[in-house]
Every structure is written in C-alpha cells, then in structure tokens.
Design brief:
The structure is a single chain. This protein has 16 helices and 9 strands. By secondary structure, it is of the alpha/beta class. It folds into 2 domains: 342 residues, Metal-dependent hydrolases (TIM Barrel); 42 residues.
Length: 438
C-alpha cells in the first residue's frame, strides 16, 4: 500500500510540474505577443501621425558635404539611392527621408566662420547653387518653397519642400543688399552668428566682443523682419539671444539647439531665454548632435581634447608619434554614445519651460561629426524619437505640433509681420555709419 502510494506520487508530481511549466510558458508567450502587439500599434500610430503631419527639419548640412566630399557633384552621388553605404557615407538621401516622413527641410548653406566679405558672399552663393541644382536633379521628389503655404502645398503633392538657411551673419559680408538677394534666392532664415563672433553679433563659442548685438546687428534683425526672413539664434551668445528677442517684431527660431539646463553647453538655450521664446512665439528646434545632447559624450570630448593638447606638447614636430598616441588613447577610451532618450529629455524640457507650441526638430544631420545618437543615425530615424515621446505619454496633437506645426505657425506669423512692414524702406546704411569705422 505504501509502495503504491509512492508510485502514484511519482507519476503525479512530474505531471503537475510540467503543467506549471506549460502555464508559465504560455503566460510568457502571451506577454511577448501583447508587447509585440503594443509595439506594432505604436509603430502604426506614429506612421499615421507623421504621414498626416510630416517632419519639418530646421537644419541639414548636406550641401557642404556635397561640396566637400563630392566636389560640388563632380564626383558621382545619387541621392535617390542609399548614401549610408558610400565611401564617404552620408546621413541623408531621398529614400531615407521618405522612410523618416520628412515633409520639409531647411538646407543649411554653411560656410567657414573665418570667411569674410566678398569671399563669404561668393561661397554662400556657391552653396545656394548646390541646393538649387539638387532640387533640379530630383523634381519629382523635391521642390523649392518660399512660404508656409508652399510647404503645405508641396507636402500634399507628395514632394519634400526645400528651404534654405544661411548659417551665419558673416555670410552677408555686412551687406544688407546681400541679405535681400539671399532671400530672393530662397533663404528663409539666417543665423546671426556661427562659431566665431562677426562684426555685428557675438557667438556662443567665442569670447564676447559686442556683448550681444551692435546697432547694425539690431538693424539687420529689423530688416529680416521686414523681408520675412526668420531670425535664427542657434550658435549665438546668450546676450545676443536676449537682445535679438528684445528687438524682433517676428517670432525667432533656434534652427538646431537644445536645452542648456539638460546639457550645459553654450550652444544650448538657457531657461530664461526659453521663457522669452514663449513670449515671442518662437520655436526651439532640438539638435541631435551628441556634444550638445549628452553630458557623458561632452566629457569624453573634453578629455580627448586635453589628451590631444598633451601629446602635441609632448611630441612637437613628431606627427607620427602624436597620431600613434592619440590612436592608443581612442582605443582605450571609446566614447559613450548619446541616446534617443537623451534627445527626448531636451524636447521635454523645452516643452516644460516654453510650452508645447515652442519646440521643434532641427537634427543637424550631415553636420554631426562622429557618432550620431543611438537610434537617430540618419534621416529615416525620426519615428524612433516620436515613439519614445509617445511612450512618455505625448498626445498625437502635441506630437504634430513638434513635427512641424509649430514651425509653420512661426513662419506664417513672420510672413504677417513682413506684410505689415511693406511700406518701410530697405535698410541701406553701412556698418561703418551705424557702428563706427572698422
């Protein structure tokens, strides 16, 4: 009897254990299926949202990459193909822009900040010519836009609206006439300075000279308002930001800047300025560049700079030894990649301080040196950022404002300001007359 009982236990217990294991496996499979279903539903939601409200990106540096890596297009380059696999890989092509739901792009016509005068104007014209030729090469996919209405019309027709951004006040050679002619050629914003101070505006990354804007600089802001060109405050010093916001009659933009409270870099926007942007009606378009997004990445960048200075001092006149030492340091200290989540942190901080109507997207693609944030390494990846924000509870309405609605509203308002100033004469004063002899 006792033996029989033991036998019954030996046959029943494994069955109970197996049953329990099957139940656990079934629960795990159901949980995985549910997670997969939620992910699929989120993907479908973001795809639908961005199809209806496409991305308007405030800053892409492809024109200089075409100039620099592809010799003004004298070397073969097909933007209708995947450019990430080229000898000189790019972060931008038309295939990936479609995948990323890009509806409008401000193409930056950046030139080096140390170019001055006629050389700056000529080089800017060459960059504008690259954009015009790019649009002409792909008429079925790109079209030049000059207004908010153009952007809406071009998006509805299934093409990508192409606008131009002048990325530094030095590019006009202190000539209001050059500013107006750049507008006539399609430029719809100008950054008041780039990485160096110019003759009328201080940069965020140079020692202050003007402590903001000179009288001529303030007159340039007024002239930009008059012709309908957006004032871009990326790259400028905090003093320049505040003074431009005090004198402008139209909304400003930051075409590719992030939040200084989240990552303390002078290229980012301080909290007090974010509040001024809200009062102005402007838009801060969040940058993806790791050095402006990730504190860990910036620390690594700073440490590498210190090491570079050390080996330069240690091995003067010995470039081979310097290179070997830096290569060894790089191998031992790989950078920590920035993340999509960190970019989302900047977006949310700007929303929290300035309000949902004052944040947008300004990726800086093809202007990003080194490694882009994980999940945001090309123009096809914008949906990853929007999925992250949706997971954080963002509504479709708020995501649509971020994707492009806020920029359209600011541009429309700038157009109305320009219309109200039509009777004013063009700026014709020289910088010497306004600021003194130079």
């Amino acid at each position: 009897m006792a033996l029989g009982s033991r036998r019954r236990c030996s046959t029943v217990l494994p069955f109970k254990g197996t049953n329990r294991m099957l139940k656990l496996l079934a629960a795990a499979l159901l949980a995985t299926a549910a997670t997969g279903a939620r992910a699929d539903a989120l993907d479908a939601r973001i795809d639908k949202l961005l199809s209806a409200s496409p991305i308007i990106d405030g800053h892409n540096d492809l024109p200089w990459e075409i100039r620099d890596k592809y010799d003004f297009w004298r070397k073969p380059l097909d933007l209708a193909a995947d450019t990430s696999r080229l000898e000189h890989p790019l972060q931008t092509d038309l295939l990936r822009m479609r995948k990323g739901h890009v509806g409008a792009q401000f193409w930056s016509v950046w030139i080096p900040a140390d170019l001055k005068g006629d050389a700056a104007i000529r080089t800017t014209l060459e960059e504008i010519d690259i954009v015009h030729r790019m649009v002409a090469r792909y008429p079925g996919q790109l079209e030049l836009a000059g207004s908010a209405a153009d952007i809406k019309r071009i998006e509805k027709q299934g093409r990508i609206a192409s606008l131009i951004g002048i990325e530094g006040g030095h590019q006009i050679g202190n000539s209001p006439a050059a500013l107006r002619e750049f507008y006539a050629l399609g430029a719809r914003y100008m950054t008041l300075s780039h990485s160096l101070n110019n003759d009328f505006a201080d940069s965020a990354t140079d020692d202050p000279v003007h402590h903001g804007l000179t009288p001529f600089g303030k007159a340039i802001v007024h002239e930009m308002n008059r012709i309908g060109m957006l004032v871009d405050l990326s790259h400028v010093s905090a003093e320049t930001m505040r003074q431009a916001l005090a004198v402008t009659k139209a909304p400003v933009i930051f075409s590719h800047s992030s939040a200084r409270a989240v990552m303390d870099h002078p290229r980012n926007v301080p909290d007090d300025v974010l509040k001024l942007v809200a009062a102005n009606g402007g838009v801060v378009m969040v940058n993806f560049y790791p050095g402006f997004v990730s504190a860990a990445y910036r620390r690594h960048d700073s440490e590498r700079g210190a090491e570079e200075a050390r080996v330069k001092n240690l091995y003067p006149g010995q470039p081979e030894r310097r290179k070997a030492a830096l290569d060894a340091w790089d191998a031992a200290h790989p950078p920590e990649a920035a993340t999509t989540e960190e970019v989302a942190d900047h977006v949310e901080h700007i929303r929290d301080l300035a309000g949902i109507d004052h944040v947008g997207i300004g990726s800086d693609f093809d202007g990003i040196d080194g490694t882009a944030p994980r999940g945001l390494d090309g123009v096809d990846k914008y949906p990853f950022l929007f999925r992250e924000l949706a997971r954080r509870g963002w509504s479709d309405q708020d995501l649509a404002r971020l994707s492009g609605g806020n920029l359209l509203r600011a541009l429309e308002q700038a157009e109305r300001v320009a219309e109200s100033m039509r009777s004013e004469p063009p700026l014709n004063a020289t910088i010497g007359a306004m600021d003194g002899a130079r």
